[in-house]
Design a protein that fits this description.
65% of the residues lie in helices and 0% in strands. With 216 residues, it is mostly helical.
Length: 216
């Protein structure tokens, strides 16, 4: 498909999305990271519903993800085909994760459903960008593809490297809760990790959250 066809399809999709625009939603949004170039305030469920009404199209999704328009970037994550996400695409998808909303939707709609979650987790947990680490944590939390030991190994250092980052701490909590409650061998491993966390604001937040999630 040529660039002209992609552009015309993008314009048509954007027209559908813009009809759902809501200034109040846009004004109330609070995200960690860079703001979007354009934001029409369409609710996330509506974006997903409109994207699902279109057939999956990985090339089109990659094209939309390049656009600095909130609704197009988020719709791309539903239109993309998880089976076609490979390690060679990690940089391209990562470049579009500019704030916490995109990180969360990428994990929910796309990355956790791929066959390469384990490889993505290893690559992005070693990245310097906290948003990529956040997306990796949420993706691993939603998928059982990362072995328990590999999932938990980076977490104590993460709490030390980003001592005040409560967004990353929430990502760690999501992963620990998933491992500790969904995997038979996970609870004891999670408790050991929590016991090794340093004394930082992020680590304290993790400990507080996990205390009630694992019933103490």
């Amino acid at each position: 498909m040529g660039a002209t066809d992609l552009t015309s399809r993008m314009v048509e999709l954007l027209g559908r999305l813009r009809r759902e625009m809501n200034g109040a939603v846009a004004d109330s949004m609070r995200v960690r990271g860079r703001p979007y170039g354009l934001n029409y305030g369409v609710s996330l469920p509506t974006i997903r519903a409109i994207a699902r009404s279109c057939p999956p199209d990985h090339a089109f999704a990659r094209y939309l993800f390049l656009q600095d328009v909130r609704e197009l970037r988020l719709a791309a994550l539903t239109l993309a085909e998880p089976r076609r996400v490979v390690a060679a695409e990690f940089d391209a998808w990562g470049a579009g994760i500019v704030n916490s909303e995109v990180a969360e939707e990428a994990a929910f709609a796309l990355l956790s459903r791929t066959e390469c979650v384990r490889e993505l987790y290893a690559a992005w947990m070693a990245a310097t960008d906290p948003l990529l680490r956040y997306a990796a944590l949420l993706s691993a939390a939603r998928s059982r593809s990362v072995p328990v030991r590999e999932a938990l190994a980076p977490l104590p250092a993460l709490a030390a490297d980003f001592p005040e980052d409560l967004l990353l701490a929430d990502g760690v909590v999501a992963l620990l809760a998933s491992v500790g409650t969904d995997r038979p061998e996970g609870r004891d491993a999670v408790l050991r990790v929590v016991g090794t966390l340093p004394h930082t604001a992020a680590a304290d937040h993790i400990r507080e959250q996990m205390a009630w999630r694992l019933d103490g």
